[in-house]
Specification:
Layout (H helix, E strand, L loop, with lengths): L1 H23 L11 E5 L4 H7 L4 H10 L2 E3 L6 E5 L3 H17 L4 H30 L6 H9 L4 E2 L2 E2 H19 L3 H10 L14 H11 L4 H8 L10 H15 L8 H16 L4 E7 L4 E6 L6 H18 L7 E5 L10
Parallel strand pairs: 7-8
Antiparallel strand pairs: 1-3, 2-3, 4-5, 6-7
Length: about 350
């Protein structure tokens, strides 16, 4: 028993040390993407030229780019709105060139948008090649490199997916090196683990399984394919590499500042959490604290006994599990106290 306890303590200490080492490797900057781009105009007269006679210019531009062009009373400013950052970036560059050129008509719009789309294809390949070069990964299929470049224009909970993939690869490589797993293979699997997000607009299904199919199609090792497919436990993992990838992905997504929830969704979840706790009989007050990771429930000591407090905490936890969707775990703390008040006169 003594040897078992020592081994358990040593394993815990060593695992924390390895994780801390891996996390320190990935102290990188992060970006928050938005759904609109603001274009500044040289003068107000340019708005009329962008709209065109009977709106033909703006209609042509929106049709070719798939982006909404918003023109309002704000002086010398127009706004591009689109949920797809890649389409929005193409539209932004094209519109800036048209404004600089001054010739704005349907034929010219078609020429410029087509030219920008071709340039963007080359840019995506350059971005993908740069990411591979940074991580020392070689021999990827050109289509995979291009898809890695597309991840630059995708976000997950506001975290840039390309940056997340590079960060995950750094952590995965560090963990693999410590645990005696092939470092190059670990980095390769981590860089490709979210590749399905580059194609999830065109294909239906979980991005992990889509990514695994894409990797298999372009000749990646079956161990890497399984690691990609299993990184969100859609299928069982068959190797240590898959487990390391799961850990690395979780670390990159959970580090402070990596991701953020929409304020409205966050506030709604907090209110729902407090409402669930308050719905039980004998509960006086319920407070969600620690950004919704803990709920403190204050009960009436005359209605709830010490034994009932244990049952109440269990029932609240079960109801939260059944009715709410949330990341991580939520701690339920039931507080029952007797207060005796007397006054000295």
């Amino acid at each position: 028993m003594k040897l078992e306890n020592e081994a358990r303590e040593e394993a815990k200490r060593k695992s924390q040390e390895i994780l801390a080492y891996a996390i320190s490797k990935a102290a990188v900057s992060f970006v928050t993407e938005k759904t609109v781009s603001v274009i500044h105009l040289p003068n107000e007269e340019m708005k009329g030229r962008i709209i065109g006679r009977e709106g033909r210019n703006i209609r042509t531009f929106e049709t070719l780019t798939g982006v909404d062009l918003l023109i309002d009373d704000t002086p010398e400013v127009v706004v591009l709105s689109c949920a797809d950052p890649l389409r929005r970036e193409i539209a932004r560059i094209a519109l800036e060139r048209l404004i600089a050129d001054g010739r704005i008509h349907p034929t010219r719009i078609e020429e410029v948008v087509k030219q920008v789309e071709e340039e963007m294809e080359h840019h995506l390949i350059e971005v993908g090649e740069k990411a591979c070069f940074e991580l020392g990964i070689y021999g990827l299929h050109p289509e995979l490199i291009k898809m890695i470049g597309k991840l630059k224009f995708r976000t997950s909970y506001s975290q840039n997916v390309l940056q997340h993939s590079i960060e995950t690869a750094i952590i995965c490589g560090a963990l693999a090196g410590e645990l005696g797993v092939d470092v190059k293979k670990a980095k390769r699997a981590a860089l490709l683990h979210d590749i399905g997000k580059a194609a999830s607009y065109e294909l239906e299904g979980p991005h992990a399984l889509i990514g695994a199919e894409i990797a298999r199609k372009f000749g990646e090792d079956e161990e890497i394919v399984n690691a990609i497919a299993s990184h969100h436990e859609d299928i069982p993992t068959t190797s240590l590499l898959g487990i390391i990838l799961q850990i690395s992905d979780a670390i990159s997504g959970a580090r402070p500042g990596a991701r953020r929830e929409l304020l409205e969704a966050y506030i709604k979840r907090i209110k729902e959490l407090e409402a669930i706790a308050s719905s039980f009989e004998g509960v006086e007050k319920a407070f969600a604290i620690q950004a919704g990771r803990e709920i403190r429930v204050i009960v009436d000591d005359k209605k709830i006994s010490d034994e009932q407090a244990y049952v109440l905490a269990h029932e609240i936890a079960q109801k939260i599990e059944k009715e709410l969707t949330y990341p991580g775990i939520i701690r339920v703390t039931v507080i029952r106290e007797t207060r005796v008040i007397e006054y000295a006169k």
